[in-house]
């Protein structure tokens, strides 16, 4: 807080603040609106009167969703899938990226292209399904956590990060008697908290939100992640096929099932953000810019 | 014994392979194969009015469309009773309804599909015909006495013909209705009508008069706004008005329409009847009787306008009337009353127009290799097509879930609810018992269909059923080469017709340019398209007519 700030700087600050506030409003409004709708009475939702504050406070839809045991089964599945898949993905990505970051490695270019090749070409849906089914992975957690375990984008970011660590540190560690694994575990990884936190977040969010692989490879409702449960709930509420009268409860649910579903799935992963945010901001930049 | 039956199976298989290989030539053998190796568990004398019961316990995989309103439960009375009655255990492969079609395509494409694949809407099955993954079921109808009986009794031959492919067979066992079932129409605010002393409109011209009178009383409003405009503009409205003039529009738009006077197909979007439909709707828009946003707005917006009293007429079906409009409307305005009106009539006269078949079942071709194939076809015939099977799938077990008195009136058990028949009852027919399940219960006799309708819906149905059924068009299945060509023409043609139809209706293009518009369609291969359709029609008539 030095008093010698130029006029121009102050003007910049003001304009900056105004523009960024605008951006915040634009991104925040739909979100707050969704939360408001999820707590509102159908009467106000259907006549388009809900903006930022819930009107006619109503918890019916929450009660319907939460009282279904299948919701909790599937929610637990999502947590398990996310944790296991992230752990596997992190282990594989870290190892692969660390190897690729060593410039003296023979065949390094080939290994890099093996990874990049999968980024550009894929076998297509049906061959992939036949493969996973042929390996006997369908209807198990492995169908979710093994295919796509390495995201090539994340791999490349991590590789760049490792390349930028000073090699002198590793040499010193080697002289002090650490083998390769020791160097990775006791020198490199502790120095890489930023990129690791970032990658964990990237992976966790993508596994948390994913539904398509689960939809492809799982055939039993007990195994589904909560994303499929909610997706199906929304489809059923908007396109139910049984003609006839429905209760007030169901019509309330039809009015705001989407917003309730969104709120319920987004909140937990949203709650993780503040804790990793400080790594997150520096982490994304680190791999790319620093050096 | 076991050795023998295995050998029989191999011989049977060989015969099938030969028959299948022969099919590619365009030859249509009536009997596709010798069934002696596929008869395990089947009933020798299975026929009409007979309970199917497999002679040994057997089981089949079935693709199951899992509805979120009544999620699949393995302890449903439906499964237990089904096995008790038929000795068949169904093993459902559950797929969430939100993405049923995607998964079905994947499973069929990868060869992992269950034998029985229900909930398929024509022409979805056509995508799988070329790959040879699904069975030409029309070759095996001799195994299905109830299906054949309903087709004959309810005169469904012409409707089945429209399912046939160029080889003369069809690949989908459709749901069969005794009569055309009309559900979609318009809903009107009857309290406003009463207040203005208006009669229920019988024709589209009557509707125009009614809208005019409403406009005179409420000059700031559009008396009609419409929904079901996305992704097909005017999905329901264009469909209904086009029908009244003898064309096809909206959801039902097809490029070719049968012209009985000429004995050949005409191009729908260039027909004089299609023009009349446009003229009528243009009149409504021009005089501000119909909200011009009707063709582009989301359903949600249309519902909001109608429910908040900003308009008085909107498209509906039985379910929307009760679910989408009435509850909200009555909360916002206790005096509001709405009703379905019988579909307004036009120059073609008192017809009810619509399909008599609906979604149905595909069978995986690999079922032919199954030793229980014959039993499976008999089972499908019983469950989906026999009156007893349909009643069981819809109402459940007599004395447990429902009772039926001497006059044939069904009554749900007191502690069970379904479509509001016993509001507040602790159990639900679909959720807790698995009956009236969209996968197993559809089609059937009018009596059965009507058995769950409310009084007001029955009234609507009675009016509609008094009308004559609209004759089914003759089939014109393309061969593979034609289909490829036609696909290239269809999309640009359809896009252009849709776009120009809207421009004419909304007044962005003057109707005096109609002839120019028809010329522009020519430039998009309308005539070549029509020639192909008529060639296909002539060929099919000659070969299979």
From TrEMBL, chain A:
GO CC, sorted alphabetically, is: plasma membrane
Q: Which Gene3D superfamilies match?
A: MetI-like
Q: Where is the ABC transmembrane type-1 domain?
A: 75-273
PANTHER family referenced in this protein's UniProt entry, alphabetically: ABC TRANSPORTER PERMEASE PROTEIN MG189-RELATED-RELATED (PTHR43744), POLYGALACTURONAN_RHAMNOGALACTURONAN TRANSPORT SYSTEM PERMEASE PROTEIN YTCP (PTHR43744:SF9)
Which organism does this sequence originate in? Nonomuraea jiangxiensis
The record gives the membrane topology as:
Multi-pass membrane protein
Membrane-spanning parts: 12-32, 79-99, 111-131, 137-157, 194-218, 257-276
Q: What is this protein called?
A: Putative aldouronate transport system permease protein
Automatic annotation (TrEMBL), chain B:
SUPFAM superfamilies this protein is in? Periplasmic binding protein-like II (SSF53850)
Can you tell which superkingdom this protein's organism belongs to? Bacteria
Gene3D superfamilies found in the cross-reference section: Periplasmic binding protein-like II
Q: Which UniProt keywords apply?
A: Cell membrane, Lipoprotein, Membrane, Palmitate, Signal
User: Is the keyword NAD assigned to this protein?
Assistant: no
Instruction: Report which residue ranges the record marks as coiled coil.
Output: none
Which PANTHER family would you find in this protein's record? ARABINOSE-BINDING PROTEIN-RELATED, POLYGALACTURONAN_RHAMNOGALACTURONAN-BINDING PROTEIN YTCQ
Q: What is this protein called?
A: Putative aldouronate transport system substrate-binding protein
């Amino acid at each position: 807080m030095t008093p010698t700030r130029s006029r121009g700087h102050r003007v910049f600050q003001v304009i900056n603040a105004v523009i960024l506030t605008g951006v915040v409003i634009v991104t925040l409004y739909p979100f707050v609106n969704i939360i408001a709708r999820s707590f509102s009475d159908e009467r106000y939702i259907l006549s388009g009167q809900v903006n930022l504050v819930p009107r006619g406070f109503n918890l019916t839809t929450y009660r319907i969703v939460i009282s279904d045991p299948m919701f909790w089964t599937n929610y637990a599945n999502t947590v398990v899938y996310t944790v296991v898949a992230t752990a596997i993905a992190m282990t594989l990505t870290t190892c692969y990226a660390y190897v690729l970051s060593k410039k003296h490695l023979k065949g390094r270019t080939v290994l890099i292209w093996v990874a990049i090749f999968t980024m550009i070409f894929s076998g297509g849906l049906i061959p992939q399904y036949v493969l996973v089914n042929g390996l006997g992975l369908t209807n198990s957690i492995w169908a979710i956590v093994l295919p796509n375990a390495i995201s090539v984008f994340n791999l490349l970011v991590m590789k760049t990060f490792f390349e930028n660590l000073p090699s002198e540190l590793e040499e010193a560690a080697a002289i002090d008697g650490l083998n390769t694994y020791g160097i990775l575990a006791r020198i490199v990884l502790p120095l890489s908290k930023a990129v690791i936190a970032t990658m964990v977040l990237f992976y966790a969010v993508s596994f948390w939100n994913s539904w398509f692989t689960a939809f492809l490879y799982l055939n039993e409702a007990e195994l589904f992640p909560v994303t499929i449960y909610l997706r199906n709930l929304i489809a059923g509420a908007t396109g139910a096929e049984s003609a006839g009268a429905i209760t007030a409860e169901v019509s309330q649910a039809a009015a705001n099932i989407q917003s309730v579903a969104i709120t319920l799935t987004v909140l937990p992963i949203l709650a993780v953000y503040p804790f990793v945010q400080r790594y997150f901001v520096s982490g994304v930049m680190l791999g790319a810019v620093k050096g | 014994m076991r050795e023998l039956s295995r050998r029989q199976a191999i011989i049977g298989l060989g015969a099938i392979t030969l028959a299948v290989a022969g099919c590619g030539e365009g030859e249509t053998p009536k009997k596709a194969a010798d069934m002696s190796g596929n008869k395990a568990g089947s009933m020798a004398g299975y026929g009409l009015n007979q309970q199917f019961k497999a002679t040994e316990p057997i089981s089949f995989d079935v693709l199951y469309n899992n509805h979120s309103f009544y999620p699949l439960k393995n302890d449903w009375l439906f499964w237990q009773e089904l096995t008790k009655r038929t000795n068949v255990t169904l093993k459902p492969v559950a797929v969430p309804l939100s993405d049923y079609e995607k998964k079905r395509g994947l499973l069929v494409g990868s060869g992992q599909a269950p034998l029985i694949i229900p909930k398929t809407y024509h022409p979805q099955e056509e995508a799988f015909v070329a790959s040879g993954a699904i069975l030409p079921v029309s070759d095996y109808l001799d195994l299905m006495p109830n299906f054949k009986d309903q087709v004959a009794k309810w005169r469904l031959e012409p409707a089945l013909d429209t399912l046939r492919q160029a080889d003369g067979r069809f690949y989908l066992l459709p749901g069969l209705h005794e009569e055309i079932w009309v559900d979609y129409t318009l809903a009107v605010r009857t309290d406003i009508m009463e207040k203005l002393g208006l009669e229920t409109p019988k024709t589209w011209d009557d509707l125009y008069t009614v809208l005019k009178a409403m406009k005179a009383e409420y000059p700031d409003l559009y008396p009609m706004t419409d929904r079901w405009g996305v992704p097909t503009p005017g999905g329901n409205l264009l469909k209904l008005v086009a029908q009244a003039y003898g064309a096809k529009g909206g959801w039902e738009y097809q490029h070719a329409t049968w012209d009985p006077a000429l004995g050949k197909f005409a191009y729908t979007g260039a027909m004089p009847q299609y023009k009349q439909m446009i003229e009528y709707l243009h009149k409504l828009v021009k005089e501000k009787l119909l909200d011009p946003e009707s063709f582009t707005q989301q359903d949600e917006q249309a519902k909001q306008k109608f429910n908040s009293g900003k308009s008085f007429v909107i498209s509906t079906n039985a379910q929307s009337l009760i679910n989408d409009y009435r509850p909200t409307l009555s909360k916002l305005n206790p005096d509001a009353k709405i009703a379905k009106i019988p579909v307004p009539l036009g120059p073609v006269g008192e017809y009810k127009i619509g399909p008599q078949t609906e979604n149905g079942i595909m069978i995986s071709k690999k079922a032919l290799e199954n030793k229980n194939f014959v039993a499976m076809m008999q089972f499908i015939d019983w469950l989906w097509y026999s009156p007893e099977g349909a009643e069981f799938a819809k109402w459940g077990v007599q004395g447990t879930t429902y009772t039926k008195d001497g006059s044939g009136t069904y009554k749900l058990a007191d502690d069970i609810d379904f479509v509001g028949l016993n509001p507040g009852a602790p159990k639900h027919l679909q959720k807790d018992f698995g009956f009236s399940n969209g996968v197993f219960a559809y089609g059937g006799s009018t009596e059965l269909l009507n058995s769950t309708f409310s009084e007001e819906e029955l009234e609507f149905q009675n009016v509609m059923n008094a009308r004559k059924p609209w004759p089914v068009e003759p089939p014109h299945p393309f061969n593979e080469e034609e289909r490829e060509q036609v696909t290239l023409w269809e999309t640009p043609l359809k896009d252009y017709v849709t776009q120009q139809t809207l421009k004419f209706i909304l007044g962005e293009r003057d109707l005096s340019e109609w002839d120019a518009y028809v010329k522009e369609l020519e430039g998009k291969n309308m005539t070549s398209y029509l020639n192909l359709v008529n060639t296909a029609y002539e060929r099919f008539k000659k070969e299979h007519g």
